[in-house]
Structure formats: structure tokens, C-alpha cells
Amino acid sequence: MSSTRTLIRGGLVITAAEETHADVLIEDGRIAALAAHGSGAAEGWTADRTIDARGKYVLPGGVDAHTHMEMPFGGTFAADTFESGTRAAAWGGTTTIVDFAVQAPGQALREGLDAWYAKADGVCAIDYAFHMIMADVNESSLKEMDLLVQEGITSFKLFMAYPGVFYSDDGRILRAMQRASGNGGLIMMHAENGIAIDVLVEQALAAGRTDPRHHGEVRKVLLEAEATHRAIQLARVADAPLYVVHVSAEEAVAELAAARDKGLPVFGETCPQYLFLSTDNLAEPDFEGAKYVCSTPLRPKEHQAALWRGLRTDDLQVVSTDHCPFCFAGQKELGRSDFSKIPNGLPGVENRMDLLHQAVVEGKLTRRRWIDIACAAPARMFGLYPRKGTIAPGADADVVVYDPDAGQTLSAATHHMAVDYSAYEGKKITGQVETVLSRGELVIDRREFTGRAGHGRFTPRATCQYLT
Ligand code: URP
Ligand code: ZN
Ligand code: ZN
Ligand code: ZN
Q1: Is the CB of 68 under 6 A from ligand 1?
Q2: What angle do CA 327, 269, 11 make, to 5 degrees?
Q3: Distance (Å, rounded) from C-alpha 281 to C-alpha 21?
Q4: Does domain 62-381 have CATH number 3.20.20.140?
Q5: What residue's CA is closest to ligand 1, atom 2?
Q6: Domain Amidohydrolase-related spans what residues (predicted)?
Q7: pTM of the prediction?
Q8: Do residues 253 and 274 touch, judged by C-beta distance below 8 A?
């Protein structure tokens, strides 16, 4: 914690609720007060450090509720460690990540979770929390869910995809949902019909269709929509809330919208890759398409309008990155002769705030909706609000000074993620993070990294705040 008093003066403070021309006083790592520009002096404000934010936005630090640092997948590990990944997140204006601890089949949740505590301990540049991936729903892991909720791990990801790896059948899913209904946990669903997909994978490979673009073709829109529908019905039977992760297809958004129109506690997340990239990228020649292999897969461009609309109408509440980077050299290449062996996942933890600001520039989102879907809603969804996700007295002083007029070009040559390509190589963005504070400490100071590994703390979470 910093005992320094910091004054951020002259900026436009943007939260999900309002935009105010205000100075912000930070003390002991928390937001102490806001006051109209220049009026702090009259209230006796003094500061050891003043940050000039004239002409800039003053934003809550981003909350990325879906990352996979060092995630094991397909015989390799995601390339960012908690150290490199949280540093890159800070560069991009994100000050909290919620990563996924993994229970392997046969393991206790405790064992998987402890391994994730150990990976992150003492190396993170920004604050972090965990969801728990449940790959083995059984009597004992169901009981463990209650203990995890008490410990601040209040959300559990289940997979309708990846048979033999993370997959749970409908009976296991129902039982986990029933348990969550009782203990306040939130079930996060990877909604794709993995059993059907595996049949199509086998048929594609047998027919010699081995290129990355076939990854998108076998993971059909209908199989995402069907799984989304099924997950919603199972959640209704269990009387449990549901959060569907990485929604990519228009038809899946329609399932969420229909459920929400009935007033059901069903929530949805999408990711920048589905908003900005498409099957055109998966079809890039010379195996370049492998850079864009993730699940759910990228969809034809026509799906993007429904995702943007869902974000505007609140049928989708959150944009997270699903940051799960694998290098092209040596990792994506594992699937050169078989798309099903390409490790699934894209880098993006550094790019989310900027890409969504670009959407503001292009008129797809308002500034407040940008901050809602990137900061406030993920904090509320996962029990971190108002400590995270807003700028208000008492909140953690996780603050970004953002220059809305700076121009930048996204590139692997300049990014800070430990991966040898950018999914957005060459994309021009208006806007750039200038300065970042985490609990009042400078992590990025006018585009210099001034943070340190180990500043970031594990942050236990309350239960979903959309339900209370
Ligand atoms: O392709 C992806 N999304 N990789 C990460 C694991 C997951 O399913 O979220
Ligand atoms: Zn002003
Ligand atoms: Zn998933
Ligand atoms: Zn993921």
C-alpha cells in the first residue's frame, strides 16, 4: 500500500454511471475524494505527487475476467507467465485479472487451486483472483465447491466441449449447477457440443481437411447455439444463475437474449477476437490461420453485428480477453498437419481496453458502456465491486490515465505479451494508456513500466452482485 497522496488533476473521469470533470485524490492506496477541477485546494487537499490529466480520460483500471496464464493445453503451456502476463495487462490499462485455476481429472479442486496460488504468488504486477475450472465433478469436488466459495473463489467453469479433457456430461453439469444454486457460486459455461464436434473433427481429418480453417468449420454455429440453449435449460432446472463465456455466434446471442427476456439470471461474455476478427483470419495461407485458432472459433464477419448489438442492449454484459497465448513458432506449429493439434487460444490481455476504445471512436459503443463492459460489469459479475471497476471514494485506487487522441499501431514488435505474434498486427487505434496506478502505486508512468513483480495481490471475491 502506498502512503503517498496522489492528485490526478484536470481529467474527465469516466465510470459506467457518469462522466465528470473532476480531480481525484488518492490516499493509502484508495480513492479518497473527487472534486470539481481546481476545487480541492479549498477543501485542504495536499498531495506529494500530481498527475496532469488535462485533455485525458481518468478511468477505473480494467478488469479482465477471463485469462489463462501458463495454462496447460494440448501438451504445451500458454506462453505468458503470471509475471509477464500481468505486466502486459498493466501496459494495456488492466489492473485486475481473474484467471482460471485448473482441476485436472482425478484431482481435488484444492490441489488444482493450490497450484495456481503458487504460480501467481509473488510475481504479479497487478491484482488477481481465480475462477475454478472443474474437469471432474464428483461427490467430493461438489462438496469442495462450498469451501471455495467461502475462500473467495466464487465461480466455476464447466465445459460442454473437449471430451476426455475438461468435458462434463449433462448430469455432472446439472449437479454442479444445483450445488452452485445452494452455495451462491456462479457457473461459467464453455457452451459447444464437444461430442458432436469430435465426430466432425474425425471426419474432416479422414477426408484430408487438415488446415486451420477447418477448425472453424467443424465447430459449427449450431453446435454453439445448441449447447447454449441446453446450458440455459439445465440452469433453469437447477434454479441457478449462468454465465456463458466467449460467446461468438449470433444464434448463441439469440439464446441468451431469449432467456433474459424471460427474466432469467443468464449472462454472457464475448471477447475482442469475435468482435474484430473472423474466419477470414483463420483462412490465411501458409498456416498463418493457426494464429487465430481458439474455441469457440472465430465466425464469419456477419456475426459481429449481433455481438455489438448484444453489448449495447445488455444481452451481453462483459468483454474479457480469454487471453491464452501460444507462440506461432513451436506451439501453434504442433498442428501443422492436423488442425486439431493446434493449441487453442489467442493473446489479447494488453489490447482489450484499446480495441474497445476504438469501438467508441467508431460509434459502436458509448464511453460509459466501454467502461461498463470492461471494468464495472466484470467487477460486479464476479464480486469485486465497488472495490474494483469504478472510481469512487473508498474504491481501490486502480486508475488509468488514457489519452483519447494518441495514435498507435498494434504490433508484436511493440507489445509486452510473451508471444511472437499479435492477433491484431498493424491495426491502427486511436487512444492509448498513458499512466496506470494499482492501489495508488504507479505501474505505468507516462508509458514507462514502473511496477514490480509481487505488487499484485490475490483478491478474494464475493458472489455475483447481479443477483443480490
Ligand atoms: O481457445 C481457447 N478459448 N482457449 C482457452 C480455453 C478456453 O476454452 O477458454
Ligand atoms: Zn475538464
Ligand atoms: Zn472455454
Ligand atoms: Zn478461456
Answers
A1: yes
A2: 90
A3: 41
A4: yes
A5: 345
A6: 57-443
A7: 0.98
A8: no
Q: 26 with 392: CB under 8 angstroms? A: no
Query: Atom 7, ligand 1: which residue's CA is nearest?
Result: 295
Residue 106: burial class (beta carbons within 10 Å; 0-12, 13-18, 19+): exposed
Contacts of 462 (CB under 8 A, 6+ apart): 152, 154, 383, 384
Closest CA to 63 of 295, 391, 455: 391
Distance of CA 352 to the CA centre of its chain: 9
Nearest-ligand number for the alpha carbon of 298: 1
- How far is 365 from 463, CA to CA, in rounded Å? 28
Please tell me what DSSP assigns to residue 340: G
In the prediction, which pLDDT does 1 show?
46
Beta-carbon contacts of 126 under 8 Å, excluding residues fewer than 6 positions away, are: 61, 86, 89, 90, 94, 95, 96, 97, 398, 438, 443, 451, 455, 456
Its ipTM equals 0.94
Residue 41's φ and ψ, nearest 5 degrees, are -55, -40
CB crowding 261-297: b at 16 or more within 10 Å, else e? eeeebbbbbbbbbbbbbbbebbbeeebebbbbbbbbb
Distance 93 CA to ligand 3 centre (A): 24
Nearest ligand (C-alpha, residue 292): 1
Computed over every residue of the chain, the mean pLDDT equals 97
Ligand 1 centre to CA of 338 (Å) is: 18
Which residues lie across from 100 on neighbouring strands?
A: 131
Q: SS3 of 303, please?
A: helix
**Ligand 4 midpoint to CA 389 (Å):** 21
Average pLDDT over residues 80-91: 99
> What pLDDT digit, counting tens, does each position of 395-414 carry?
999 999 999 999 999 999 99
For atom 5 of ligand 1, the residue with the nearest CA is 345
The answer, yes or no, to whether residue 266 has pLDDT greater than 70, is yes
Residue 321 CB less than 6 A away from ligand 1: no
Q: Residue 451 and residue 435: Cα distance in Å, rounded?
A: 11
Residue 271 confidence (pLDDT): 99
Cα(321) to ligand 4 centroid in Å equals 8
> Residue 67 Cα, ligand 4 centroid: separation in angstroms?
6
User: Which residue out of 64, 80, 197, 295 has the highest number of ligand 1 atoms within 8 Å of its CB and is therefore the one to mutate?
Assistant: 295
Spatial neighbors of 2 by CB under 8 A, at least 6 apart, are: 26, 28, 29, 439, 440, 441
Helices assigned H by DSSP within 219-329? 221-238, 250-261, 272-276, 279-282, 304-313
